[in-house]
Design a protein that fits this description.
heterodimer, A: 257 residues, alpha/beta, Rossmann fold, 10 helices, B: 514 residues, D-Maltodextrin-Binding Protein, domain 2, three-stranded antiparallel beta sheet, 22 helices, elongated, ABC_transp_perm/SBD (chain B)
Chain lengths: 257, 514
């Protein structure tokens, strides 16, 4: 069905005990989009992201990827097709960098030669030296670890990338650098990316569409420029007012010189 | 080299082998059972809490009690299923030790698996690993050091605890320790302890090598350790295969005191001379020994008529010696198929004894005489005498009241009578120290104390073997109380001590001369 969006969430709802986390969230994402999922802590954005690769099963609603319900077929097959990078990263400490990056290709049965070539390619892609392949995760800096995490997520050439606060623990300089580097990869590899972040500035600068999730419902869904002009929901206005106010104060500082 | 060292070292290889096989099998079984359980428990809280609770509870049961409990349990199982379940020896020891080894394996297994970084597990799931792949590629490799540490602890505990397997008739290094303790043969105790400690250290080093190999990802170390284990197992198995023989091995039982060791050894020597392969099962509990012969786990041992009368038949009366023996012969065979072959010729009964000089000075020959002067005298008894029916019977029959009555461990009881700290003791009539300390036993004209003739008991299967009976018959009626006291003294005395086997050889030699 050619008219179907690449990824479609339909009335996805989830409760945690008696507490509702998601209220029938629906979202359609065309291929090639870079969507930022923003909202305060506890707004349900991580839960929503994890329903897409079935790390969390919703209580009701459905998710369709490329026209097929994701519940068709076993979970592990689905997950091998989807890149996933998160704040915890979770590099396997007993494997070196090359083995970490090659983990999904190995599960998919790639040959050793194909895996080695892909590892070299990916190290280059995330701007790490080739000799990092033999390093252990505990010898890497935070930024390097995160780059390896992204390389691992990209290894099996997924078309969909799910990212959960991927740069959350990095210093501002590395964070900005890695964010832009990833955005370049997204464009170059023709990816569809959904990135959870609570940093509205990061979302505005990286994404081409921002979905604001507050208390388990979508309160706004717009391109960055439109969102800056948004008027209506006071919670959303408050969220976007902050980076704008900061920008104005920074501009005033520059003018005052 | 001293004879006791030579003897201990002669016994060592067989016992060490049996000990290593028993503890090795128990640990292996505990790993096979424990790891899947730990895995299940790491995933499910509702399973984890009761499981660890149960394992902890087992650990609080003393190992000795755990071993003892398996004997009746297997006996019942054998009866219920009418399968030939051996209730004595390897099986109960293995089961008890396996249970004992489970806790450290479970606890470390759960800690290792449950304590993994959730981010790593999420990454494994998100990468598209199946449950099995996640377990084999991520969870087990990462928790291996903790799992191995648990296995190491289990191995060391089990090797130590396996010394107690002796008490359920499974040969182990405990044989050296128990028999050495009983006969105050410290060389034997030390050899047993050193061998057990050495085995534990060796196992610890090998497992340490595996652990280091896993931690540093050095397959060489792992294979080296595995290779050494393999060689050890092979050695143990080969020597066991080699000792096989076409004739059935006869199991000779012994309870846990010197006289029993000497008699079991004497029986073993006679059967050995007649061409029977013999295995001696030492340190059986009193109740265990009889049940073992009834179940056929032990073929022959020496018991005492009074003990059988009260403990096995549950009787409280005290008939004359010949009446009691005739009744026992009839009832034991009818009920359990156990054959009472006959008396050895001496009694090992509770008696009251005094120093000869003191008894003569007070004019005491019988307990009647004693009862008149008893209020001025002090009694030293062994730990259980004052609570036993014998003591109640004595007091009732003779109206016996001592000025003071205290319980001692046997060694101190004899010391008390020797140094004048007590006037009368409760002794065993065949105890070598009666002659050594120049004590006299006081006659019991009213027959208040039951008879404790030493008798040979045979299992139903052994009783069918003519050659076996022919080899044992010369012992019947041949050992008088003087000969037995002399043999016991050789083993029990502090200086110039003999081993039970040496004492048995000498005892048999005096029998031949007669």
């Amino acid at each position: 069905m050619a008219n179907d969006p690449f990824l479609e969430l339909h009335h996805v709802a989830k409760d945690l005990g008696a507490r509702p986390i998601l209220h029938a969230v629906s979202l359609a994402i065309p291929a090639g989009s870079f969507v930022a999922l923003v909202g305060p802590s506890g707004s349900g954005k991580t839960t929503l992201l994890k329903t897409i690769n079935r790390l969390i099963e919703p209580d009701s609603g459905s998710v369709r990827l490329d026209g097929t319900d994701i519940n068709v077929g076993p979970k592990h097959r689905l997950r091998r097709r989807i890149g996933y990078a998160f704040q915890g990263i979770g590099l396997f400490p007993h494997m070196n960098v090359a083995e970490n990056i090659g983990v999904v290709p190995r599960l998919l049965g790639w040959t050793e030669a194909a895996r080695a070539a892909r590892v070299a390619e990916l190290l280059d892609l995330v701007a790490l030296p080739a000799d990092f392949a033999a390093r252990r995760p505990n010898t890497l800096s935070g930024g390097q670890t995160q780059r390896v995490g992204i390389a691992r997520a990209l290894a099996a050439r997924p078309s969909l990338m799910l990212m959960d606060e991927p740069f959350g623990t990095l210093d501002p300089v590395t964070r900005d650098e890695l964010g832009r580097a990833y955005r370049a990869l997204h464009d170059r590899l023709d990816l569809t990316t959904i990135m959870v972040t609570h940093d509205i500035t990061e979302a505005l600068l990286l994404a081409d569409r921002i979905v604001v999730l507050i208390e388990g419902t979508i309160r706004a869904d717009a391109a960055p420029a439109e969102l800056l002009a948004y008027r209506g929901d006071p919670a959303v206005e408050a969220m976007i007012a902050l980076p704008q106010a900061q920008a104005r104060r920074l501009a005033a500082l520059v003018d005052a010189r | 080299m001293s004879p006791s060292l030579t003897e201990a070292l002669t016994d060592l290889p067989t016992l060490l082998r049996a000990h290593a096989l028993l503890s090795g099998t128990a640990v292996l079984l505990a790993i096979l059972i424990g790891l899947p359980l730990a895995l299940r428990a790491a995933r499910s809280r509702t399973f984890r809490i009761p499981l660890l609770g149960a394992a902890g509870l087992i650990q609080t049961v003393p190992t000795l009690a755990l071993l003892a409990l398996f004997y009746p349990a297997l006996l019942l199982l054998g009866r219920a299923t009418s399968l030939p379940v051996p209730a004595l020896g390897f099986l109960p020891a293995l089961l008890a030790l396996t249970l004992y080894a489970l806790l450290p394996i479970l606890r470390n297994g759960v800690a290792g698996l449950h304590g993994l970084d959730p981010a790593i597990l999420e990454a494994a799931d998100a990468a598209g690993m199946t449950g099995r792949q996640r377990l084999l590629q991520v969870e087990l490799p990462l928790s291996a050091p903790v799992l191995l540490a648990g296995i190491r602890t289990a191995a060391i505990w089990t090797i130590g605890a396996a010394t107690l397997a002796t008490t359920v008739g499974q040969p182990s290094l405990g044989n050296l320790i128990f028999s050495g303790l009983q006969t105050e043969n410290w060389v034997r105790v030390l050899v047993g302890c050193a061998a057990s400690a050495g085995l534990a250290i060796a196992a610890d080093l090998l497992l340490g090598l595996v652990e280091a190999g896993v931690a540093r990802r050095s397959p060489l170390r792992i294979w080296a350790a595995m290779g050494m284990f393999g060689i050890g197992v092979l050695l143990a198995l080969i020597s066991i295969g080699g000792s096989g023989s076409e004739r059935r091995t006869i199991a000779v039982g012994a309870k846990n005191f010197s006289e029993q060791y000497i008699l079991a050894s004497a029986i073993g020597q006679r059967l050995g001379a007649a061409g029977f392969p013999v295995v001696q099962r030492d340190d059986l509990g009193s109740a265990v020994a009889y049940r073992a012969v009834a179940a056929g786990d032990v073929d022959v041992y020496v018991d005492y008529t009074g003990t059988l009368w009260t403990n096995v038949l549950g009787r409280t009366d005290t008939p004359r010696a010949d009446v009691m023996r005739a009744e026992l012969t009839r009832r034991l065979e009818a009920r359990d198929g156990v054959v009472l072959l006959g008396p050895l010729g001496f009694e090992n009964a509770y008696v009251l004894a005094m120093r000869r000089s003191r008894a003569e000075a007070l004019g005491v020959r019988t307990i009647d005489d004693l009862a008149r002067v008893a209020p001025r005298l002090r009694l030293a008894s062994d730990i259980e005498f004052l609570t036993r029916p014998e003591w109640r019977a004595l007091r009732k029959a003779y109206d016996l009241r001592f000025g003071d009555a205290r319980a001692y461990s046997p060694t101190f009881m004899y010391r008390a009578i020797a140094d004048g700290g007590a006037d009368v003791i409760s002794a065993f009539s065949s105890d070598g120290r009666i002659a050594a300390l120049d004590l006299v036993t006081i006659a019991d004209p009213r027959g208040a104390l039951p008879n404790y003739d030493a008798v040979l008991l045979l299992s139903a299967r052994a009783a069918k073997d003519k050659a076996l009976i022919a080899a044992l018959r010369p012992l019947l009626g041949a050992i008088d109380v003087g000969a037995m006291r002399a043999a016991n003294l050789k083993v029990d005395r502090a200086e110039g001590k003999k081993t039970p086997a040496e004492a048995a050889t000498q005892l048999l030699r005096t029998l031949e001369k007669r």
